[in-house]
Amino acid sequence: MTDSELERLLALSDPAAIAALYDDAYRVKMECIGKCVSIRGLIEISNICRKNCYYCGIRSGNGKVARFRISREEILETALWAHRHRFASLVLQSGEVASEAFTSFIEEIVREICARTGNGMGITLSLGEQTRETYRRWRDAGATRYLLRIEASDPELYRRLHPADHSYEARTECLHMLRELDYQVGSGVMIGLPGQTIRHLVKDLRFFQAYDIDMIGMGPYIPHEDTPLGAGMTLTEEYRKHQLELGLKMIACARLLLRDVNIASTTALQALDPKGRELGLLAGANVIMPNLTDTAYRSGYRLYAGKPGLDESSERSLEAMSRSVESAGETILWGARGDSRHYFRRHEK
Ligand code: 5AD
Ligand code: SF4
User: Fold this and answer.
1) Does any ligand 1 atom lie closer than 6 A to the CB of residue 304?
2) Residue 288 CB–ligand 2 contact under 6 Å
């Protein structure tokens, strides 16, 4: 597909044409992956973050956030709960912390989850920018996947969204390191950011292609009132609809272009529409990540306005997820790790 073809698809406004785009992407997903959905249990282990991204609700500069950190026992308990409930894949996510204490905390947790589940869990980390040595230690401990969103692949747009000491180059360097350490590498962007054009989104898709990304986690930008970027923005119905649609079109275009990668239908879609997650699956996504974080902590992890499921227990959110996925005509791959096929294909080359 050419850039102008991608631009045309992302700019579609006729509902029938948009529906046809989703259908095409869904067909490619069926061909390359099947009519099935991989699940990962998401554990938000801490909202402490050293970064101050202009769009994010848990940025270090937001003094209104009560900071928390989940204990090792609580993480382990949740991981074992997930294992019992036939999850074979977990994501450990937190704000960015760089310290020896944090590195060894994660290292031990990963080791222990692997040991206690008979290596039955595919572990994904989403813990921001770290040194090569840290990434290596976590890989050696048993983590096999890492998510690090580039957020905006255009260096100039990236600079507008972050304070001066947040470096685009450092972030891409991290993606290279993760690749060299043989992680399945995930990345992604926010969609519908202020100042972002269709051209930027095409560049984002090309970035995933150029970096040969295995897993994509991207979602619509949703303003948060206590951030420089989101202050004073009102979430009208029209704005929600626009953000949701653009997010879905990006999923569809990513599927058409990248074919065999894992693509998540993210929580931000669900925040914009109760049916957002299913819509993501029908537009070509094949992964969902139900939140398993203890509800006592959920409200502390509010990245954007209206984050869903803040008071829903894990049991309840699992049931809701199963129902919604089945209603979309898809089968959940319980007990399967759901590794990225793209990762194995690139190893065959
Ligand atoms: N809207 C949507 N996504 C956001 N993120 C952070 N803030 C927002 C927001 N306001 C996303 C970023 C980050 C991920 C954890 O959450 O892409 O990588
Ligand atoms: Fe921290 Fe990530 Fe939020 Fe940036 S987007 S402030 S790195 S949690």
Assistant:
1) yes
2) no
